[in-house]
Design brief:
This protein is an alpha+beta fold. The protein has a single domain, classed as Jelly Rolls (Sandwich). It has three helices and eight strands; from the N terminus they run αββαββββββα. It has helices at residues 2-17, 42-47, 123-126; strands spanning 24-29, 32-39, 59-69, 72-73, 82-87, 93-99, 107-108, 113-120. A six-stranded mixed sheet has the order 1-2-3-8-5-6. It has a two-stranded antiparallel ribbon with strand order 4-7.
């Protein structure tokens, strides 16, 4: 039984490791540059940062949705503590929420948005970035 569990865990780890890299986009937040992986379809948005054990210092994941809506994020199978910024079509941050690892608590946009950006927990706060702050670079993306 133990051996079977080990084989299953090993196979799951290999499947995660074999996921193809996502395209990236460079975003600006004041003087800070962000290199965000782009999750812009159902499969990549569903997987998100699940099973990731690290992020680059200014790395994150940008979720591009099909249309603006009050989207919610959760942390199922995600071992990293993250902060999520919900962003409107003009690049303004609507609200930011801190999320705890391995939880299924919903963290939602306070109004309809087409984008959400996940970064290491505290990244926005440590840089004085809060609701109303505008990010640069989203104009190169279109909600899908």
């Amino acid at each position: 039984m133990r051996r079977l569990l080990f084989v299953l865990l090993l196979a799951a780890g290999a499947a995660v490791a074999q996921q193809p890299p996502l395209p990236t986009v460079q975003l600006g937040a004041g003087m800070h540059l962000i290199r965000a992986e782009v999750a812009d379809n159902d499969a990549t948005r569903t997987r998100g940062l699940m099973h990731r054990t690290s992020l680059a210092p200014n790395g994150g994941m940008l979720f591009v949705f099909n249309a603006a809506a009050p989207y919610c994020m959760w942390m199922k199978n995600t071992p990293l503590p993250l902060s999520v910024a919900f962003i409107d079509a003009g690049g303004a941050i609507v609200n930011i929420a801190d999320m705890q690892p391995h939880t299924e608590d919903a963290h939602c946009a306070t109004r309809p948005v087409p984008f959400a950006l996940e970064m290491r927990q505290g990244w926005f706060e440590q840089r004085g970035i809060r609701a109303g702050f505008r990010l640069r670079g989203l104009d190169q993306l279109k909600p899908r």
